[in-house]
Amino acid sequence: MNEISKPMLYVQQRDIVLPGDLIAEGKLETTSIYVYKEGNRYYSSVVGMVEVKDDKIALTPMEHAYIPRPNDMVIGLITDVGPTYWEVDINSPYEGQLPVGETILRQTQATVDTLRKFLGIGDQVLLKVIAFDRLKDPVLSMRGKGLGKITVGKVIEISSMTASILLFRKRSLVETIAKETGTAIFVGNNARIWISGGEPLMEDLAILALKKIDTPDMSSISISDIVDYIREEKAKRVKQNG
Amino acid sequence: MGKTGLKLIDENGIRIDGRKPDQLRPISMDVGVLKNAQGSALVSYGKTTVLAAVYGPREALPRHMTLPDRAILRVRYHMAPFSTTERKSPAPTRREVELSKVIRESLEASVFTELYPRTTIDIFIEVLQADGGTRTTSLTAASMALADAGIPMKDLIAGVAVGKVNGKLVLDINEAEDSGGEADMPVAMMPNLGKIVLLQLNGTLTRDEFKEAMKMSIKAIKEIYLIQKQTLRDKYAKMTEEEKEE
Predict the structure, then answer these.
(1) Which one of B38, B73, B229 makes the best mutation probe of the A interface by having the most chain A beta carbons within 10 Å?
(2) Closest alpha carbon within chain A to B191
(3) A2-61 with A73-149: one CATH topology?
(4) What are the residue boundaries of the structural domains of chain B, listed by start?
(5) Gap from B245 CA to chain A (nearest CA, Å)
(6) Using the beta-carbon criterion (under 8 Å), do B236 and A33 form an inter-chain contact?
(7) Quick count: other Cβ atoms within 10 Å of Cβ B100?
(8) Radius of gyration (Cα) for chain A, nearest Å?
(9) Is A47 within 8 Å of B148 when comparing Cβ atoms?
(10) Which end of chain B is more exposed for a tag (fewer CB within 10 A), N or C?
(11) Was domain A2-61 assigned CATH 3.40.50.1450?
């Protein structure tokens, strides 16, 4: 009985698959939306890397568009101020909306002027997605610990694949970079990273290290590699600055 | 003799450009050639060179064009003024509008548009040099650009044109064979799934010739498909190597 229900896998751990590649046959457990089924065969729909774990398949695409989900933490850029809300670019096909009611501003005070004073076009903000159902644009919130306008540090954008690996599998890499450079690093679900808290030089070093791991081959970069890299670059820069 | 009275195949069965009847032109492909596009590809079948760029999924403007349950595909097939021997006016011609539609419908068979409702995926196809078979080259390039952009799709699409020249079936026809030949049949497929997404026929073929032409094109499409896959894989392998050299 077990023999029949076991899927036949055509891929190995860390294989790169392309659209149309056969992944498995039989009954397969997968949560990836990038795996599609035709009859009892499972195919990949993107260029990505497969991870096999006890007959379960996870597929990390090399590139993908960010689709908001409730409770995601995102770093947004204010693009427009409306009468009772802000339009926020969240690095996604869908533009986010931040209603006044989801900020510390009182709704009775809301005029375009007060809204503009509170958050202007071009401001970067750390927000949480509270609702998104594909029929309406994602609704964002500023109510919560740590959420709000970003006033210090730097924000960078990395590839979507690196972001999902840093978020879900290799948190230790981020922690190491933060520790080595004495900065605070926040990785948003929408592939934007906020680096803050250190001296400008240290922040730049953290960005350099993050860019260094932002390659398709990042799984082969070890923590000691990145520590060595930061120390090396640090020494170079300290020497230059006399 | 062809329509124009030109002799396009010699006594030994060798074609005007020195190929055998069932031989493809040299094919070259590259992906990720444009930095600002989400995905891009440059594909050449012999002298025919096509550049494809994909932007999106992104917010569609004007908004009323969007669909509530899926993304729309917008395809613009365009020939550069310098792509032909005589200057082509840059304004879109009837032919270009029609080819944009044909290519869009072929791509729609493969792309999972339902994953991105209310958005648009824009595909720009620019023919840089035209020497026959531009629509199939364009489809090959567009599907690679889509894969490079990370847009989910059932399979890559590869295409090739089969023609009838001097009463003989020939693969991957060039401009001279297209204008001087008796028939031209572009075919595009999703090779891994074995599904045909584009089939047009200009001219006449007998039933047997049609069957033979299909056989030839399917064989060639499989060859092109292998190059497509290798090119996409190489992009990631190459980036890894560069990283190591630094």
Answers:
(1) B229
(2) A20
(3) yes
(4) 27-238
(5) 13
(6) no
(7) 20
(8) 21
(9) yes
(10) C
(11) no
Question: What pLDDT, on the 0 to 100 scale, is given for residue A53?
Answer: 83
B-proximal residues of A, 171-230, CB under 8 Å: 215-217, 220
Percent of chain B at pLDDT exceeding 90: 84
Fold category of B27-238 in CATH: Ribosomal Protein S5; domain 2 (3.30.230)
What CATH number does the domain located at A73-149 have? 2.40.50.140
CATH architecture of the domain covering A154-240: 2-Layer Sandwich (3.30)
B191/A20 Cβ within 8 A: yes
- Give per-residue pLDDT as tens, A20-48: 999 999 888 888 889 999 888 999 999 99
Alpha-carbon distance A100 to nearest alpha carbon in chain B (angstroms): 23
Q: Which pLDDT tens digit goes with each residue over A49-85?
A: 888 888 788 888 988 899 999 999 999 999 999 888 9
Kindly report each contact of residues B226-229 with a partner whose C-beta sits within 8 Å and lies 24 or more positions away, as own/partner. Answer: B227/B27, B227/B29, B228/B29, B228/B140, B228/B143, B228/B144, B228/B156, B228/B158, B229/A18, B229/B156
Chain B's closest residue to A219, CA to CA, is B240
